[in-house]
């Protein structure tokens, strides 16, 4: 899933990009507030991590403008400011969670995964669809209990479709969520990726809706 990271501390940003990429996210990083606001307002993101103290435009102003313009992706505020009044102000401005610096990377990743799950209507960190089980904490997929080795891109595809089970996801949406903005890809990249995943899973999980996109049916609990 594609994530917007807005952080002007270069060293911290480098560490965050590495950790988030390792956790299966496609990361767009911006250090300038004005540029970050524009990207969040015009690009498609599963979530954003937003610092408050930024050049050009502060984080709360960015957040207020996003929400005023109807942007609904979850936002985790990340800041050195620890005063509870500022936390309340951030939540009231439309933030979904708040993590003060310094922080443990494991906690940030756990909070972020929870935000993404809730925004997709999923409560558990483990997603089950028939014989397929996806553990978002371990980034692991099994079929009938047998581990399936997926590339990071293949894992992101299965994760995104399973988190949006029951909804047809267009090829454009998958392209936006699975690939970095500057990644050069063929026009049939998603189709090829889906084909590889189907062969590896060996089960009829991902369905094609011609002219619309791809679907994983929502399976009711027994």
From TrEMBL:
GO terms for molecular function: phosphorelay response regulator activity; transcription cis-regulatory region binding. CDD domains: REC_OmpR_EcPhoP-like, trans_reg_C. Residues 124-218 form the OmpR/PhoB-type domain. Keywords: DNA-binding, Phosphoprotein, Transcription, Transcription regulation, Two-component regulatory system. GO terms for biological process: regulation of DNA-templated transcription. Signal peptide: none annotated. This is Two component transcriptional regulator, winged helix family. It comes from Thiocapsa marina 5811. Residues 124-218 bind DNA. The modification 4-aspartylphosphate is found at residue 51. Residues 2-116 form the Response regulatory domain. InterPro entries: CheY-like_superfamily, OmpR/PhoB-type_DNA-bd, Sig_transdc_resp-reg_C-effctor, Sig_transdc_resp-reg_receiver, WalR-like, WH-like_DNA-bd_sf. Gene3D superfamilies: 3.40.50.2300, 6.10.250.690, Winged helix-like DNA-binding domain superfamily/Winged helix DNA-binding domain. GO terms for cellular component: cytosol; protein-DNA complex.
């Amino acid at each position: 899933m594609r994530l917007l990271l807005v952080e002007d501390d270069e060293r911290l940003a480098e560490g965050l990009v590495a950790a988030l990429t390792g956790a299966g996210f496609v990361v767009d990083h911006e250090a300038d507030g004005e540029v970050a606001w524009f990207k969040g307002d015009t690009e498609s993101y599963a979530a954003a991590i937003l610092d408050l103290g930024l050049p050009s435009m502060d984080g709360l102003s960015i957040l207020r403008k996003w929400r005023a313009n109807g942007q609904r992706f979850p936002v985790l505020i990340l800041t050195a400011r620890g005063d509870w009044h500022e936390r309340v102000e951030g939540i009231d401005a439309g933030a979904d969670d708040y993590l003060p610096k310094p922080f443990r990377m494991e906690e940030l990743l756990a909070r972020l995964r929870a935000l993404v799950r809730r925004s997709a209507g999923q409560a558990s960190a483990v997603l089950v669809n028939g014989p397929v089980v996806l553990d978002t904490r371990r980034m692991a997929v099994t079929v009938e209990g047998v581990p399936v080795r997926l590339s990071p891109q293949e894992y992101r595809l299965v994760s995104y479709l399973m988190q949006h089970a029951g909804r047809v996801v267009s090829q454009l949406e998958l392209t936006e969520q699975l690939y970095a903005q500057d990644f050069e890809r063929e026009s049939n990249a998603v189709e090829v990726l889906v084909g590889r995943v189907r062969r590896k899973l060996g089960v009829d999980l991902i369905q094609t809706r011609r002219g619309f996109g791809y679907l994983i049916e929502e399976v009711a609990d027994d």
